[in-house]
Amino acid sequence: MEYLTNFIEFSADDHRSIKNASDLLQPLLSTITDVVYDKLFEYDITKASFTVEQSGFDGPIKSDLNEAKVTDPVIVYRKTMLKKYLHKILNDELGPKFTKYLYWVGEIHSNTRYKTSSSDVEFINLNALTGFVTAALMNIINDSTQASWTPEERNKTLIAFSKFFWIQNDTFLMYHAILQDKVAELSRAPPKAESSPNTISSYGPTAANALLGFGIGAFLTMAISKLFK
After folding, report:
1. pLDDT tens digits, one per residue of 129-183
2. CA distances in angstroms from 205 to 3, 112, 200, 209, 227, listed in the order given
């Protein structure tokens, strides 16, 4: 995460831009989560994720895909978790605790030996979901009439959210594409006292190429966005 964060230049200013969007987005979190889960139920491949055991949920789960409804208790629970996630993004401070939380989000959607459940969400679906949520938030920001934002501030906020979700998506990739024991070790390591040279060589060539791809993609997104300032 450190390498990607530095590469795409996610800064304290970016985080402040995200937090400054809280007044706009916080009242809409319930609506956003409803829209997200309506979208997930449009496709059997994503809907099927809710017919199996869910981490943290002990209630009934319908195993028959045709019987699953967006109003089922498990979906109400998942909506609550998504709302909490978005709330943390908008309100939490940067630091080791928040970084650990982002790693946890990546881990809980994979299948590692450190989890208490066997639930696993394929990366292709996580990638699609991240893109949908990112677009939804950015559309709200772009279409808002928040008078206190200058065009420059609005643009900075859009870029900040784009960078953030690239970083979050990186944790999904790590837990799905990199040796799980190595990732678990990294995510549980104490924060470094001093900065050290950034390297991804320890992840291996396949993971290195994938991580670099995320970084370049986010960097190009930022560059293109700046053209429309």
Report:
1. 999 999 999 999 988 876 667 889 999 999 999 999 999 988 888 877 654 555 5
2. 15, 22, 9, 6, 33
Query: Count of domains in the chain?
Result: 1
Rounded CA separation 93/33 (Å): 23
Q: What is the pTM of this model?
A: 0.72
What distance in Å separates the CA atoms of residue 14 and residue 208, rounded to the nearest whole number? 25
Residue 9 sits in a domain whose CATH number is 1.10.490.10
- From the list 26, 164, 15, the residue with the least C-alpha distance to 93 is 15
H helices present in the chain, as ranges: 2-7, 12-20, 22-25, 29-40, 44-47, 73-91, 96-108, 123-143, 151-177, 180-188, 205-226
